[in-house]
Task: structure prediction
Amino acid sequence: MTFTAACPPPCLCASDIVSCSGRNLSTVPPDLPGYVTRLDLSHNVLSALLLNWPDRCLDRLTTLVLSQNAITYLAPDAFAPTPHLRHLDLSSNGLSRLNASAFHGLGELEVLLLFGNRISQTMAGAFQGLSSLERLYLGGNRLAVFPLELYQRDGALPRLRFLDLSMNMVRQVPVQSLLSLATWLQGGIYLQGNPLVCDCALRAMLEYWERRQYRPLLDFREEYPCSLGQEEWLNCSASPQGGFHGTVEVSYQAEPGDWLMVPCPGVSLPLREGFMVFWVTPGDGSPALGITNGQSSRLTVLTNGTLEIRGALREDSGTYSCVAVRGRHRSSNETLEVTVSVGNPSGLGKSGEERSSGGEHFNTAFTTLASCVVSIVLVLLYLYLTPCHCHGGKAGGVGGCGGRAMLLCADPREAELADRRVTGGKRVAFLETGGEHPHKCSAKHPVMDAAATEGILKNGSRALEQVIEEHVA
Result:
C-alpha cells in the first residue's frame, strides 16, 4: 500500500506548495513531501543550511524561499538534494562570503537572490556551473570590487542578463571591460547607490549609457553620485577653446590594406590632459579601445582620440561608437557612431579580376531584364491577337478563308460580315500548313488590327532600347 506524505505539522500545504513561513523554526522540518514544487521557509531563525537539511531528495522542487532568516553558512553542495531548482531566494540573511561550491549542481537555476546580506567576498568559482542563471541580485551587500569574472574567463555565466550591484561599496568599475560587453549585458547592470569615484572614464561610460537609453541608468539617475553639473563635466571635457568636430564624417569608405584615420565625433581639440576616449568596435563582445590601453594588432586610439585602422580588412566593416565626455556641448541629434566600409561592393576601381566579376554580374542582370521585356511583348500579342477562323463561304471565295489564310478578327461578328468588309483596311494573316477549317471565329477577346500590332511591337522595341541605354550608361 502506498501512503501519501502528510503536510509537516508546523506548515501549511496546498497541493504541491508547502509554506513554513513565520514559524520561528531553527531547523528545517523533517518529512517534507517529495512532491513539493515550492517550499517557503522565510521569516524564521535558520542559521545554516547543511548538506542533509532535507531528509530526502526533493527532485521536483523548483522554488525555494529562505529569505528573512539568520543564515550565515552554506555547506558545500548544500543544494545537491534540489537539482531542479529554478528560483532560489537567500535574501536578507547574514551571509558574509560565498564558498566555491556553495551552488554546485544548480545547472537549471535561473534566478538567485542574495541582496540584503553582508557579502564582502566571493570565492573564485562561487557561481561556476550556473549555466542557466539569468538574474543575479547582489544589492545591499559589502562588495568593494566589481565581479568581472561573471562575464569573463572560466566563471562566466553565459545567460546572465541582469546583475544588481546596487548599494554596495564599489568605488571603481572596469570601464573599458564593461564597454567591451555586449549591449544587452551592459543594459542590465545596476550600479546605483555605490560610492563610485566619478573620474572621466566613468562619466564617459555613464553618458554613453544615457545616450543608449539603458534602463538601469535612466530609472535610478539620481542615485548615481556623478553630477551632470556644467563645472564638473567641464573638467572632463575637451578644451573649450578648441574647435569641435561637429562636421566630422559619419561614414568612411576604404579599400583592403588602406590606413584609415577616424576622428571622434563631437570632441573638440586639443584634448585636456587626462581626457578619456574609448572606441567600441563592431560586434557584441569585441574589445573596447582607449587612449591609455587602446591598441590591438591593427587598431589604435591616438592621443587626440582618433581611431587609426592599419591595413584595413573587410571584417573591419561595421559601426564604431566613440565614447567620451561631451558634457554641456551635447546635442540630441549628435551622433556617437561612425560607419566604416572596407571594400567596394560595386566592383569599381578594383583589380581587373574584380572588374570582370562585376561585368559578369552586369551581363546577367541585363540578359534577365531583356528577357522580361520580350516576354511582356509576347504576352501582349497572345492576349490581343487571338487567331480565329473565318466562317467558311464559297470555296476559294472572298468570304472564305481564302485557301490557307487565317484572319485575326477584331470581333467574332467580323467572320459573318467578311463578305461586306471594305477591302481597303489592312489585315494580318498567319499561314496554316493544314487544310481548310470551316469553324467559326472562336476568339473571346477583341484583337487589334495590323496598325495596333505594329504599335505594340514598336513600343516593346523602344522599351528594350531604353533598358539597354540605362544599363550601358
About this structure: The two ends are 91 Å apart (CA to CA). The helical segments are 175-179, 183-186, 200-211, 215-219, 230-234, 352-384, 413-416, 450-472. The chain is about 20% helix and 15% strand.
